[in-house]
Each structure stands twice: as C-alpha cells, then as structure tokens.
Design a protein that fits this description.
It comes from Operophtera brumata (Winter moth). Helix content is 18%, strand content 25%. By secondary structure, it is α+β, with helices and mostly antiparallel strands. Strands 4, 5, 6, 7, 8 and 9 form a 6-stranded mixed β-sheet that branches. Strands 10, 11, 12, 13, 14 and 15 form a 6-stranded mixed β-sheet that branches.
Length: 351
C-alpha cells in the first residue's frame, strides 16, 4: 500500500497477515507507465527480501512453509476428483478440479473404463453410473463425451470434447461406484455339513442381502439356525432363476459370482467347492425378460431373399414371435404368432 502524508510516504507490504515496513522515501513525481512497472518490480523484490524483526528463525521458517503450501494449492488440486452425493466416499457423482473450481462430468459416452480411471484414486475398481444417480449436477460441466481405455493415470488424460465444452443437462451427471475386495471380506471356512442331495427351495428359507434394492444381492439360506451364503462355484442362471421365483421377484437377469454385495459365512456348497473360494453366489432379478432368444448362426445359415415384391409375401411383417418358457429356433419360413398365456393354468399343453 502506498500513501503520502506531509511530503513523506510509508511503503508497507501486507503478506500472510504480517506487516513489513520496507522503506521511507519522498513522494516520487508522476511516473510514466514504464516507470510505474519498474517501481512495482522493485517493490516486489524489496518486499521478498525483508523479514520481520519480531519473528524468530523457526517462526520465519514456519511462515515460509505456510506460504509455499498456499502457492502450491492450485497445482496440487488441479485434475483431482471427488465423489459427491453417495452414501460413502467411494460412491457418488464425479467432480473434477480445474482452473480454480470444481466441475461435474457429463455421462455421455461414460462407461466402466472411465470409472476404472476414477477409482484408481482410491486404489479400487469401479463401475459407472448415469443419469445423475446421486443427484443433479451442482456445478458446471467440465468434461463431456469422455472416452477412456481404463489404463490412463487420471481422468484428464482421457479423450473428451474440451474443458467446459458441454451441452448436457444437470440430470446427466456421471458417477461411479468404487469397490474393493478388502471392503467385503468373505469368511473362507469350509462348512461342517455339505449337502449332496437336491435342495427343495419350496421348504427352504431364502433371502437376498447386501443389494441396493430388494431385487438384487447375495443369496443367503437359513440352515441349522443361522443365515449364511451359498458358494459361487457351479452357480448358474438355472439356480438363480429358482431363487427369483421362490422370492416372487420374477426372473433371474444375472447369476453373479462376486463379493460385491458383501459376504457372510458359507453354509451351502456345491459339488465343485473346496471351502476356500473367494466369492459367493449372488443374483439380480427382474420382472421382464425377452420372449425369444435369437440363434444368430441359424439366422445366417437360413437367410433367404424372396424374388417377389413385399406385398406378395404371405408372412410379411410378422416377425414378432413368442416362446413359452423355453428357447426355440425358428427358420425363415416359419410364421409365428403371439400367444396370450396370462390366464393359462400351468401344465402340459399341445399347440
């Protein structure tokens, strides 16, 4: 700060809440723009070289370290990420620090490879979330159309449209779920009793635990008075389908062999389990499944091009088919019609 009083002036520098008296000199004449620049540089040089007489050597060292940390703050934060809105620090919408402020990431082209790059910050693996799963974006979008290979050291090393270049709505915030095996340890004790007979799920208590909703989770069975997990070896979509039907959750969408949904003591093992497996059986159920499973090889081998006009074809535009509780293969010359089986009593029928 520069002030003039009674023909004299006091030049004082204010830095890190400390006042340093630098020099006393008569007020200079009105300088040109160039001379103002020279005086300013001189003042900065003089200010840096002056230390307070009231500070000890250790105090001056502490002040210098504090100032250095302030100067390095922007460089330290540049490119760092944080997760916002999730139930813990490993889950949430992705925010990136750039140019002095935090910004969101748009979910256009956002995939698990990008999530892997983000979760490296926490030494974890990860999966991507979309559509502002953890709330709408509360900051401007820094990145859009992010394309990663998964081995980049940080998110800015991925391909994207450019800093701040985005046409996304606040509801299109990208997020991640970072997880580690260390967070969900599996108790690797071999069960005392191995069931070698068929398990009747109709008389067995089952439940899904650890899922984000009631349609997913690790499969637990109530056996010998305790709830425990099922060994994942040999766990297929057939067993998962039986669990979903038993729990009135529809169909099995995925049969998982993972510890993502946590763990508990393994009380039921399949014939392929040894007792030292690192994963337990899990399932994701759904109320809707496709009616027809297409066999691409059959479609390719029976492809047929008609040499008549479309309007002359007897089965034209009737490709939609239905398969009741099984996977059927249809050739090109088979005409399929929808069959309503909503109110049909379960049993054996001949069509």
């Amino acid at each position: 700060q520069y002030s003039a009083s009674g023909g004299k002036s006091a030049l004082t520098s204010i830095f890190a809440d400390e006042y340093f008296e630098v020099s006393r000199c008569p007020p200079p004449p009105a300088p040109s723009h160039a001379s103002v620049t020279v005086i300013f540089i001189f003042i900065i040089i003089r200010t840096v070289g002056v230390s307070s007489r009231d500070l000890s050597e250790s105090d001056r060292a502490n002040r210098a370290a504090f100032i250095q940390r302030l100067l390095n703050k922007e460089k330290y934060l540049e490119g760092r990420v944080k997760l916002v809105g999730g139930p813990n620090k490993f889950e949430g919408n992705v925010y990136l620090y750039h140019a002095g402020r935090w910004g969101a990431v748009c979910d256009d082209s956002w995939d698990n490879a990008a999530a892997q790059v983000v979760c490296k910050t926490f030494n974890n693996s990860g999966i991507a979330t979309h559509g502002g799963q953890y709330g709408e974006a509360i900051e401007k979008f820094w990145m859009d159309d992010v394309v990663c290979q998964g081995d980049e050291p940080s998110l800015p090393h991925c391909i994207f449209t450019g800093w701040g270049s985005s046409d996304c709505e606040t509801s299109e915030a990208a997020g991640v779920v970072c997880y580690s095996k260390a967070e969900a340890p599996v108790e690797l004790k071999k069960p005392k009793e191995l069931l070698h007979s068929v398990l009747d799920v109709r008389s067995t208590s089952l439940r899904l635990a650890g899922g984000r909703n009631n349609q997913e989770g690790r499969v637990e069975i109530f056996h010998n008075g305790i709830w425990g997990s099922v060994c994942a070896d040999g766990w297929t979509l057939y067993e998962a389908s039986a669990v979903c039907r038993h729990l009135a959750l529809g169909f099995a969408e995925q049969a998982l062999q993972t510890d993502y949904f946590g763990s508990s003591k393994v009380v039921l093992s399949g014939v392929q389990c040894q007792g030292n497996e690192s994963h337990v059986a899990a399932v994701i159920c759904t109320q809707n499944l496709a009616d027809l499973l297409l066999e691409t090889s059959v479609i390719e081998s029976t492809a047929h091009l008609q040499d008549v006009m479309m309007l002359q074809l007897q089965c034209a535009m009737e490709e939609n088919c239905v398969s009741v509780n099984c996977s059927d293969v249809y050739k090109y010359n088979i005409d399929c019609q929808w069959v309503d089986v909503t109110d049909v009593v379960p049993g054996d029928y001949t069509f």
